[in-house]
Design goal:
elongated; 26 strands; about 400 residues; 6-stranded mixed beta sheet; homodimer; alpha/beta
Chain lengths: ~400, ~400
């Protein structure tokens, strides 16, 4: 029997042995930064925009010159200039005059508003303004978008499309990001095959599943491949992976059965911090460090390996990447009773309909196909009566 | 003035001129398929698992042999075999006997249940079973996960980690996926610069923003670069991009102002389907087809270009990728009144707190930095009174 610890203690133990942001920093080109994590606060080095800009096509004016103007009595302004896009409008506008300006154009000194072309009429060198504008109307002032020295993006932000736009607006051509942790994936088990399985054999799912999960989590992941349940071969595999990887995942062979060798190997190479978590699925999970690097022994069953990755490995990855703890995807309302289970925290794949109703999907140990039908998962706490139908639950992303 | 059409009509027009799944199909390695879209239904070619498997460490038994067993009166069974992992257990079990079996092991013929090792005691060649098991208990039957000829994943599914696991379990080493549409991004405007902006100049944000947005949407995107407002140069850029791209995005120069040339160029090269959408931001949007390829003229303002991408371009990309229309991220409750605007559908960046309260973020035309503070956006319909505080609204992903 394993001496199990709670999931919370397991996560805390993993975090205690994980150095935050420990893979270092690299500068990457802005367009290569998608999905990466900012390694520094981004403080604007300039005002954006760097001048007062028109937000419409029209005429730059002294707002006061238009006060009282209306359909019946237009203000008459002399057009003294046409400001072209990109032009430095460094002249000063005088009262009673105006300058034609396009959307995005620079306001000349003195001008404090823009009247839309639709509210004007050209008459020779005059512009007839048929409505009044207030100071600041139709103008983006210098620094209105981002003022110089503003904290714009925080260290630890994941860079997606919006952030790339903001960084481009601030003139960043390269961005400091945390290096991706390198994750090695080893599958163990005499029963695993890459061919069509013969009776007793099963396909190796975990190599692909865990490599994909690590990649999705922001790591650079590689498969070592399948290793049979041989102590020397497994030890060789772990050692080889530790040369290159920051994190090693070994799946299979971590139940308390006869084939259990991983824990002995890890104890001989480094320190085993726990073996066994009060979670379902995922109980026979091992966590060790070897030369300060986290090594996880995951269950061989793919669904269990997947949940252990999401719940136990992922927090370590997020810490190494400088990311905060994951938030639930959404809340929803359970539509059936869910009993609790054996004092172990239980994870259930669920479907969620458009109205937010949550339905647990039937699962059986070893079933992987449920993942293809699920919209997320819920967590049923240990030491409770379970959830009654109608309970609001947090749904997490798979 | 533009003759504007509704956003719904604009999207329908774009879809009418977009050929679904028109970029063809390619086979990629399973681990390279992350984020791609399945181009065929996946039907299992075999039973998973391909034999009756134990879900626990214990003894494979005839369930009937354990009926009535309990702490006080164990059933006595003769251990006739130890089934190793990966072994073809092709022998037949006789009544009154059992076989040691590990989690994941193959049940021999005759055995219909597994009793957990924790409920047994070994006594020489005997196993004492201290509880009864029902037929099927602790067993995953052949085909329980996926039966042969089951539709497992539908064409049009985006492949993420769970799907990769399921495909691996079915033995897929390569996967048929839709080719990524190639998107070319052109920025136009005399005011655009890649250097520190001089007065009147602004940085080119749209090249990076739209390239990132197209990549995130599942395209292969490239920047053509910045082109000044010169009819011949813009035409040359569009023609060059059409040689390589499936979709061309030109931003800037699409307002009705003096610099407006894009619509003329597109009319001369192909057919302009609309110019102007009743949306805010994003009104001066152009849609044309040239040699059957969609070409979009997007506003120069980054925030407007971003919303036009998400609302008008993205449906075309999803159709070409074989994906269904996008669903909202979540629902939330507005915490302030939001007035409607000028008969144009309006898009507002919002923040959403943990309790689902939705707060519109203040925006001004041309402001891009709001994107870095937003959790999503909401849509305020045209021709309404707007939304009252307390209204439940759909929040869409940025």
């Amino acid at each position: 029997m394993l001496r199990v610890i709670s999931k919370e203690d397991a996560v805390q133990c993993v975090l205690n042995h994980t150095k935050p942001s420990s893979c270092g920093v690299e500068n990457v080109k802005l367009l290569c930064s998608q999905g990466r994590v900012l390694a520094a606060d981004i403080v604007s080095r300039e005002d954006v925009p760097s001048f007062h800009r028109s937000t419409v096509d029209g005429y730059a004016v002294f707002a006061a010159d238009t006060f009282g103007a209306g359909e019946a009595m237009p203000a008459e302004l002399t057009v003294v200039h046409e400001i072209r896009m990109g032009e430095s409008a460094l002249f000063s506008l005088r009262r009673g005059t105006c300058a034609r300006i396009a959307t995005g154009g620079m306001l000349p000194q003195g001008a404090d508003a823009v009247i839309m072309v639709e509210h004007t009429q050209a008459a020779g060198s005059l512009c007839l303004a048929y409505s009044s504008v207030s100071p600041g109307e139709n103008v983006t002032k210098r620094g209105d978008d981002v003022a110089e020295n503003t904290l714009v993006l925080k260290k630890g932000t994941r860079i997606q499309t919006p952030q790339i736009g903001v960084l481009a607006s601030l003139g960043y051509e390269t961005v400091p990001v945390f290096r991706r942790p390198v994750v090695a994936v080893i599958s163990t088990g005499d029963e695993l095959t890459k061919e069509a399985p013969k009776p007793g054999q099963v396909r190796d799912v975990n190599s692909a599943l865990l490599t994909a999960a690590a990649t999705e989590a922001g790591c650079e992941a590689f498969c070592y491949g399948v290793v049979i349940d041989d102590r020397q071969l497994i030890q060789k595999a772990v050692e080889a992976c530790l040369c290159r990887a920051d994190i090693v995942l070994i799946s299979g062979g971590s139940s308390a059965g006869t084939m259990d060798m991983t824990v002995d190997i890890l104890a001989s190479l480094g320190e085993v911090h726990f073996h066994g978590i009060a979670m379902k699925p995922g109980k026979p999970t091992i966590f060790a460090t070897v030369n300060g690097k986290p090594v996880f022994g995951l269950p061989g069953h793919p669904l269990a390996a997947f949940f252990v990755f999401r719940l136990i490995v992922s927090p370590a990855v997020r810490a190494m990447l400088g990311l905060p703890a994951e938030q639930p995807l959404q809340s929803g309302t359970l539509k059936v009773n869910v009993p609790s289970n054996h004092g172990r925290e239980e994870y259930l794949c669920v479907s969620v309909d458009a109205g937010g109703s949550v339905f647990p999907l039937q699962t059986k140990s070893g079933i992987i196909s449920v993942l293809s039908k699920a919209d997320g998962y819920i967590c049923v706490p240990r030491n409770t009566e379970g959830y009654a139908s109608g309970t609001t639950v947090e749904v997490y992303s798979l």
